[in-house]
Amino acid sequence: MSGSIPFYQKHHRHYDRDYRSRETASKLSQYQSSSRYTAGSGSFTTTRSRGLNVSSHSGLDESRLSPIPKRAKPTYLAVDKENQIIGYVVPIFRSSQDFGAALTDTEDVRVRDSAAYMAHRDLFTSGLEMERSELISRREAMRESANRISMSKRIHEHEEHFKRMNQDSLMHPPEFVIKPRSHTVWEKQCVRLHCTVSGWPDPRVVWYKNNVVVDPLVSPGKYKLESRYSVHSLEINRCDFDDTAQYRVSAMNSNGELSAFASVVVKRYKGEVDEFFPSPRHGPVSEYGVTFKTHIVDMFGVSFGREGETMSLGCTVIIYPALHRYQPEVQWYRDDVLLSPSKWHQMHWSGDRATLTLAHLNKEDEGLYTLRVTTKSGYETYSAYVFVRDADAEVEGAPGAPLDVRCLDANKDYIIVTWKQPAVDGGNSILGYFVDRCEVGTTHWVQCNDTPVKFARFPVTGLVEGRSYVFRVRAVNQSGMSRPSRVSEPVAAMDPADRARMRGTSAPWTGQIIVTEEEPAEGVVPGRPLELQVTEATKNYVVLSWKPPGEKGLEGVMYYVEKCVSDTDSWQRVNTEIPVKSPRFALFDLAEGKSYCFRVRCCNAAGVGEPSDPTEATTVGDKLDIPSAPGKVIPTRNTDTSVVVSWEASRDATDLVGYYIEGSVVGSDVWEPCNNKPVNVTRFICHGLITGETYIFRVRAVNAAGISQCSPESEPVEVKAAIASPTPPYGITILECVRDSMVLAWKQPTFIGGADITGYFVDYREVVDGVPGKWHEANVRAISERAYRVCDLRENKKYQFQVRAANMAGVGIPSLPSDVFLCEEWTIAVPGPPHDLQIREVRNDSLVLLWKPPVYQGRNPVNGFYVDIKEAEAPEEAWRGVNKDAAEKTFFKIKNLTEGKSYVFRVRAQNQAGVGKMSAVTEPVPALTKPGTKEIVVDVDDDGVISLNFECGEMSPDSKFVWSKNYEDFSDSSRVTQETKGNKSKIIFNNPDEEDIGIYSCIVTHSDGASSSYTLSDEELKKLLEISHDHKFPIIPLKSDLAVEMLEKGRVRFWLQAENMSANGKIDYIFNDNAVSQGEKYKMNFDKNTGVIEMIMDSLTPADEGTYSFQLQDGKATNQSSLVLIGDVFKQLQKESEFQSKEWVRKQGPHFIEYLSYEVTPECCVILKCKVGNMKKDTSAIWYKDGHEIKSDQNLSFTEGVLKLEIAQITKKDAGVYEVVLKDDRGKDTSKLNLTDQGFKDLMNEVFSFIANSSTPLKITSTDEGIRLYTFVSFYNDLLQVTWHYKDSAIAFSDRIKSGVVGEQLWLQIKEPTEKDMGKYAIEFNDGKGGLRRTVELSGQAFDDAFAEFQRLKAAATAERNRARVAGGLPDVVTIQEGKALNLTCNISGNPVPEVTWLKNDKEITSDEHCILKFESGKFASFTITGVNTSDTGKYSILVKNKYGTESGDFTVSVFIPEEAAGKKK
Fold first, then answer.
1. β-bridge partners, 1119
2. CA pair distance 108, 962, nearest whole angstrom
3. Three-state SS for 453?
4. 1068 phi and psi angles, rounded to 5 deg
């Protein structure tokens, strides 16, 4: 049978049945299994199973018990051995009264077992009595049967007596005459809760602590329960903190159940702390052998709220067993995102109830909420959906509030605000949105945009750096403004780097040297901004972003933004008043449809820098389009108040946010949103619908650009529960026909109505001359098999048949009438058709087909079967046989299937007369291995027990493991033992031998076809028996085999390590087949704790060559490990022993732990070092180079046992043989290092490698002479060899192409470059290994840019050389006596020859007799006044000018009169 979940609910996370509690699911399961009980007449039925009485009792007449008109609830009591009522059993519902009694005897047994088990489990009764009842003897079973008959008779007599009496005056439900009261006690005191209960029959009283049954056996001496004369008490001894809880007493009899509550609070004296009390623990515990069972009950269901309201979601959590000071981990999720406590979410855990409070609901709070309770044994979850509707609009017809307001790309004075559009537009299209901001700490909201924006993103500028803001959004349509959205999270207006520093984060050390931008220099005009680009462009605004320049002034850099209509050169500054601080800027008021270019200038106190490179032309308009409408919408029934809606996704949608679903009652033309928060899936369950109403649905897609058009409306769907009666069976065929009966077979319904099929009913009718007659019931009791013999038919008459299927919802509609069949006895020689074809173990390339043999076997018995196969969509001609030889069994494994393809099968039987009729064709089956599929695994445990194990990942509560051999029930159940625990089951071979050879299969009922098989062949059995023998007679396992190692002083150690050896273990040491013992030469040791066995020899001599063995024995277990030491192996070991002996002698005095070596630092310094040991104060360490002692004033150091000699800048002079000598009264040791020839070359190659790795990427720059390629290295050494390449060939240098080094810069200069110089250039560093090459491509745009810059610099240099200049010769001030002659001459340069103009007081003067102006040879300009007078006083200038520039020289002439000067002196 397939699972009880309809196909359209699978893989959906919140269909309605998942909201049921485990108790409800248990009752549903009980409905399926307890169909024996029926609300019939006032009869009494008693069922005994495993020591539990399940009885039904009622004194009402049949009319009052009818379940249909008044929904009367008959009582079905569960009674224990002492005839005490402990619970109820809910009967199965069926529309036909006869159906309840229509189960076979086999099903009766299953019902009794299921009902008894469910009563035990649901009411927390002890499992000890069930185990005891399963072990009773046959005599006890017979006595139990007699007692049951006697008990039934007594209850029947009581029933008749009760009918004659006034029920109202005798039978009444429990009532608390005195309820338990709450107590507050001190720690270590005792407390007693008591109550008085009345009711008849006598109520059964159970005490609970935090909804967990109080069991005195679990905590002996802690609790004491008493019940005397209707007075019931619970005594708690020596109270502690764990006893603080809510206690409940429950009284129950056949007329009802009542509970009363009392609380116990335990206090501790101030300052008194029990030091022996363990501290409370949270999370997983380490108690040995504890398995927690978690049950979530009293769950919240699908919830509906409105914006502004407060909602609480809560569940009661029962964890068994309850351990002291242990609390589970309780977490809440929304849409799989963990929720944290905030002003919007408050979580509370009281010890047995988890609560989530959603304060001031908003549409962001809509979603699937999941409670997850985690213990050390796993976790349990429960989920339900919460819907949040819009609050009433302040203005009628106004849209709903936007939602999910977020802040992105925050900078100094610029933030992008995003949001999601609301589902409700108020009946009019939304015109746009207004964004408001508020500074944190204030309540003053400022509107950020003057006109509404339609795009769901908006850049907010004009913020104050360093301040924090929150934002909200409002929607507007023709009717008015919506309510504001929920405010965003606060965000600070600051540079992202500053924000990262404020968080206290720092990057880990990576070993790399990062070159940061230079510190601002005073008076430096900032450079060009870098990487200017348009990051966003809509019809309302354009957003620019760039990177700051490399150079900055002393003050912070700010920016001016300029725009220009494309194809023009008219640049206009946008922010003329205030420059911006952030490297982001949003431009508004641009003409839609026009193309613009943009550029940015930097400015600071030193001035305004050069503009950046302009952007490419950008057309003003929305780059993001509104998504297309979703496709076809398909609604499917789910529950009484919900419908599953699925649709086709929008095509070519960009940056899709999600979908809004709307529903409308057919004929109302009123559309209501089903969700107020976009969902990003194409399937959604719409809750809160009216049962019985017919709805249609449509869907809209949402992105930042807006909301799409509506999808096509769906087909109408009625809101109705999905669990229903099954659809009709089909494929009715005849398996056998005799004179007065016919055997029918049919196929299971394609849709079972959401619940397992519990039986079938067959009807038949006679057809006379083509006219069908009246239908008659063929069976009164439901049949579970899909084959049935219809009897009492008339020979040579024609009949039609129909079949109905039944499940817990009732009996389904009948199938279509079958073909007309003639009732005549079959006389054909060949067999009839096989039937009941089943498919198991479906994998990617194989499956197993099972069938039942024909009912009609023909003249001779059936002796084989043939299986036919074809692809599901292939024509009839494509049928082909699978097996050439007839199969003897009623199962067959079909192999070599193609993965993913669907197949159908049929079977034919044969006897001596030939091949018979074909069976009905199976349903198409795809050859696919379902996810999570597992196979049967064979295992041999430590005791040699062989078992087959199977695990099922997905099981329902009613699932069972069914094992079989050769796909049949075990003929001899004593050969195997089945054990099942949780989702794992195994069969154990009690005495494996040849009789156990066969195919073992296991199928899991109530699952999605989980099944597997294992073939136990003769060879496999022999292999398993060998492994079993090894396990029964184990050898001593070894962690390591016999090995040899060298100890100090040259001693040799032979050793091995055993896994487990007892103290009685024995070891024999063998050398060349002779036992050796403890003595001067051999020293043995056995550590019983670690299992290490060793034998030590002081030295090796030639006589010790041979084979060494350790023989172990521990009881029956033995083991041996050997080691062969002969030939070269022994000689090498002996040589090593002698060397270690000498080494030990050497180390008695000062010695080298690590010999002399060198190290190159990242700074390219060479350090010679060696590590020494066993040094004393008078030990001397002397360095030598080429036999000459190195004086101590050089770069020598000794720290932490390491001698070092540092060579800062190594050259050829440093090549040589270095030696260190250690010496004192105990001895002498020497270490040498040869740094000549190849040694020095290797050292320098390592230095060169460091230099090469420090080089920067090859870059291009331009000079006035040409193009220069360069790279920087951290350090430069004169011995460094580099090679420049052009197009992978070494460059031959000339006057036009040169290379050189300046400081740490290596460069290649190309004078007067041409297009022939274009290509790939590289610099190769030679480090003796493979070198390092840096390349750069000097072609294309890079060459064009560099060549253009070269031309510009060359022209600038030429202009600088040839521009007009005043070289000198003019004084600043000339003081002259009146009447004297003044003659001044200056040098003039420039090419072409400059034009010379003389000025007096900024007015041009010309040459005359008084003032003679001359310009001779294009070099000398003279100024002569023949006789100066006072009118010649003034400021004179000479102005020279040519096409390359202009320059001026100034001087002042002051004329004085001698008499006046003399008078002033006096």
1. 1112
2. 19
3. strand
4. -110, 130
- Look up residue 764 and give its two tokens: 């038949």
**Tokens representing residue 72 in the block:** 């009367």
Residue 1211 CA to chain centroid, in angstroms? 58
DSSP code string of 907-959: EEEEETTEEEEEPPPPPPEE--PPTT----EEEE-TT--EEEEEE-SS--TT-
Amino acid at site 936? I
Mean pLDDT confidence for 1269-1287: 87
* Cis ω before 728 (30° cut-off from 0): no
Q: What is the pLDDT of residue 621?
A: 74
Could you tell me the two tokens for 838?
């089943």
Per-position DSSP letters for 1294-1340, written without gaps between them: -SSEEEEEETTEEEEEEES--GGG-EEEEEEE--SSS-EEEEEEE-H
To the nearest 10 degrees (0 to 180), the angle between helices 105-122 and 22-33 is 160
Token readout for 248 is 């409940």
DSSP assignment, residue 1250?
Answer: H
Q: Which of the four pLDDT bands, split at 50, 70 and 90, describes residue 852?
A: very high
Start-to-end CA span in the chain (Å): 137
Q: Which residues pair with 152 in a beta bridge?
A: none
Spell out the residues 6+ positions from residue 746 whose beta carbon is closer than 8 angstroms to its own: 729, 730, 731, 732, 733, 760, 786, 803, 815
∠634-637-638 over CA atoms, to 5°? 120
Q: Which of 879, 643, 500 is nearest to 12 (CA)?
A: 643
DSSP states of 173-236: EEEEEE----EEEETT--EEEEEEEEEESPPEEEEEETTEE--TTTSTTTEEEEEETTEEEEEE
Question: Per-residue pLDDT tens for 715-763?
Answer: 999 887 766 778 899 889 999 999 899 999 998 888 777 677 889 999 9
The stretch 1037-1041 carries a mean pLDDT of 89
Contact 1174, 1146 (CB under 8 A): no
Give the closest residue to 1165 by CA, choosing from 1211, 1197, 1212, 1208. Answer: 1208
pLDDT at 935: 92
Contact assessment for residue 808 and residue 768, using Cβ atoms and an 8 Å cutoff: no
Give residue 521's pLDDT band: very low, low, confident or very high (50, 70, 90): low
The Cα–Cα gap between 437 and 472 comes to 7
Beta bridge partners of 542: 537, 587
DSSP 1076: -
Say if residues 32 and 115 touch (Cβ distance below 8 Å). no
In this predicted model, what pLDDT tens digit does every residue of 558-578 receive, in sequence order?
A: 888 898 988 888 888 888 777
What DSSP state is assigned to residue 1048? Answer: G
Whether the pLDDT of residue 276 is over 70: the answer is: no
Length of the chain: 1466
Integer Cα distance of 592 and 540 in angstroms: 8
Residue from 1283, 1256, 1268 nearest 1338 by CA: 1268
336-341 average pLDDT score: 90
Ramachandran quadrant class, 1204 (left: phi over 0; alpha: psi -120 to 50; beta: rest): beta
**Residue 1141 vs residues 75, 1047, 1136, 1151: alpha-carbon distances, Å:** 95, 9, 9, 15
Higher-scoring residue by pLDDT: 1, 958: 958
Q: How many Cβ atoms sit within 10 Å of the Cβ of residue 1157? A: 12
**Single-letter amino acid, residue 1068:** D
Average pLDDT over residues 606-618: 85
What distances in angstroms separate CA 1353 from CA 614, 1092, 1346, one per listed residue? 22, 83, 10
795 secondary structure, DSSP code: T
Strand (E) or helix (H) holding 1351: helix 1340-1362
Nearest-angstrom CA–CA distance, 317 and 1209: 75
Indicate the pLDDT class of residue 327, thresholds 50, 70 and 90: confident
